[in-house]
Amino acid sequence: MVQVVSVAAGGALGALLRYLVSLLTTRTIAGEYPWATFIVNLLGAFIIGFLWGIFERSKVSTHIKSFVLVGIIGSFTTFSTLSLDAFKLMQAGQTKLALTHLTVTNILGLALVIGGYVLAQKINKLALA
């Protein structure tokens, strides 16, 4: 139960941090490019890598790791988790699998966003008919 509460508390904090970074970014950088998402994803990837490196060599409790890595950083950006998973595969000597995982996840993710959007548009048209 402590583990669940740790992840939930970290998730709330991570979501709030994401919102604040997005708010700050949209107020300071103009344009069509999704800078807030770009910054959050890359910042999260760096932070999760840094913390993973720290946690690997220290005796941090499982609850703290879950609070920070799964809760805070996981809700701040799931891109960071994808990147960490790929790095772990590379550490295990599975570089080809890591690159395949990244490529397939990104391409399918984009395809599914498009597919979901198209389906929603069709449902909207039916609802209006």
Provide the fold topology:
Blueprint: H1 2-28, H2 35-56, H3 62-76, H4 78-91, H5 95-128
Helix pairs in contact: 1-2, 1-3, 2-3, 2-4, 3-4, 4-5
Would you give an account of this structure?
By secondary structure, this protein is mostly helical. It has two domains: 2-78, no CATH class; 94-129. It has helices at 2-28, 35-56, 62-76, 78-91, 95-128. The mean pLDDT is 91.
Please state roughly what percent of the residues sit in beta strands, choosing from under 5%, 5-15%, 15-25%, 25-35%, 35-45% or over 45%: under 5%
Count of extended strands: 0
The count of helical stretches stands at 5
- Quickly count the domains: 2
| Radius of gyration based on Cα positions | 18 Å
What is the approximate shape?
globular
In short:
The protein is mainly α. Helices cover 87% and strands 0% of the residues. It is built from five helices and no strands.
